[in-house]
Design a protein that fits this description.
This protein is 36% helix and 22% strand. By secondary structure, it is an alpha+beta fold. A five-stranded mixed beta sheet has the order 5-6-1-7-8. A four-stranded antiparallel beta sheet has the order 9-12-10-11, covered by helices on one side. It has a three-stranded mixed beta sheet with strand order 3-2-4. A hairpin with a 4-residue loop joins strand 10 and strand 11. Helix 10 crosses helix 11. The radius of gyration is 22 Å and the shape is globular. The N and C termini lie far apart (59 Å).
């Protein structure tokens, strides 16, 4: 049996990134509860400052609900170009230490420092150096998790936020996982966590006590993964060039739309944005998915797979319109999105298109 070397993985996560950038650039916002994106009457919160989080405001929450929880909340328009600019500075710091950097988004990444450019044997000290260097260059704080694999490192990075770090040494991994609530397991969503609770599985130790057969019976193909994770086993490598699975864009509207004619106009704008990114990355795909979010925040997706690859706006839009009229809409619509999946590439980076919110 092959014995794999112990790896040293760091997960870096910027602290309330979008909100912190706004407070950095606008000192008058420091110490105040702010929400990036959304508004007191419309839209969805993209990020919340720690001052706002104390009131329960969080990302993906409607602006209306956020304002209700925190009447003093200040809404700020997102500036994605600025966030990308700072993200590049942060990425440059990572690359000073290792080329094995796997970005998850603008504000977080995995680093494999088992072998690193500084020749430093301590991943804990490397993480501390990186966090200090990020602060010196950008004025922003970051938190870090350090362990033997990506799974544990990501969970650990949440422990001493903001502006802290936690190391889980190899001999501490199983004990660390055993006391975790299963809802904190990266990869276990709300629905799966609820199912586990119903089965009497509340902690990592509870999960570890179940046999592989039991987990496969109740969770299908995910059973093997849950069996391994409960024992701290994860073979996922840090991949600098992550495989792109889809490219998409979506838009939240100022007012709910009830007419498909108005929706067609919005879909054309979204399709144009996707085509622009498709040309930039020289990709194409076969599956078009239309995302619809209704005024009551319920969500629906409709998909169609074509027999050939497409990369043209007109074909993307034509298919999206077909999906729009596929079934009757159940209510007025607050958000529409289009994504292109089943791509013709296996070695390109993930692409996330975030359109600016309407206000």
């Amino acid at each position: 049996m092959e014995v794999l070397p112990i790896r040293k993985i760091i997960h870096i996560d910027m602290d309330a990134f979008y909100a912190s950038v706004e407070q950095l650039d606008h000192p008058e916002l420091k110490g105040k509860p702010i929400a990036v994106g959304g508004s007191e009457v419309r839209g969805v919160v993209s990020a919340a400052s720690y001052e706002a989080r104390k009131f329960g405001v969080k990302s993906a929450m409607s602006g209306v609900q956020a304002a209700r929880l925190c009447p003093e909340l200040i809404f700020v328009r997102p500036r994605f170009d600025r966030y990308k600019e700072i993200s590049k500075q942060i990425r440059a710091v990572f690359l000073e230490y290792t080329d094995l950097v796997e970005p998850l988004s603008l504000d977080e990444a995995y680093l494999d420092v088992t072998e690193n450019k500084k020749g430093n044997p301590s991943a804990t000290l490397i993480a501390k150096e990186i966090r200090q260097k990020i602060f010196d260059k950008t004025g922003l704080t970051a938190s870090a998790g350090i362990s033997v694999n990506k799974f544990v490192a990501k969970i650990a990075s949440d422990y001493n936020k903001p502006n802290g770090q936690k190391t889980v040494n190899p001999d501490e991994v199983e004990a660390f996982i055993e006391v975790l609530d299963v809802k904190k397991f990266y990869g276990i969503g709300k629905v799966t966590a609820e199912k586990m609770y119903q089965l009497g599985i509340y902690t990592g130790l509870d999960l570890k006590s179940k046999s592989l057969e039991y987990l496969e019976h109740h969770f299908g193909n995910s059973g093997q993964s849950f069996y391994n994770l409960s024992r701290g086993i994860s073979y996922s490598q840090v991949k600098p060039n992550r495989q792109m699975k889809s490219i998409g864009a979506e838009r939240t509207f100022n007012e709910n739309l009830s007419s498909e004619i108005y929706m067609e106009e919005r879909l054309e704008n979204i399709a144009s944005e996707i085509e622009r990114r498709i040309k930039k990355y020289k990709i194409s795909g076969k599956t078009i998915t239309l995302k619809i979010k209704y005024s009551d925040f319920t969500q629906q997706t409709r998909s169609k797979t074509l027999p050939y690859f497409i990369a043209d706006k007109s074909l993307i839009l034509e298919t999206a319109k077909e999906l729009l009229y596929q079934d009757r809409l159940k209510d007025s619509v607050r958000l529409l999105g289009i994504s292109l999946n089943n791509l013709n590439t296996s070695q390109k980076k993930n692409v996330v298109v975030q359109l600016k919110f309407e206000f």
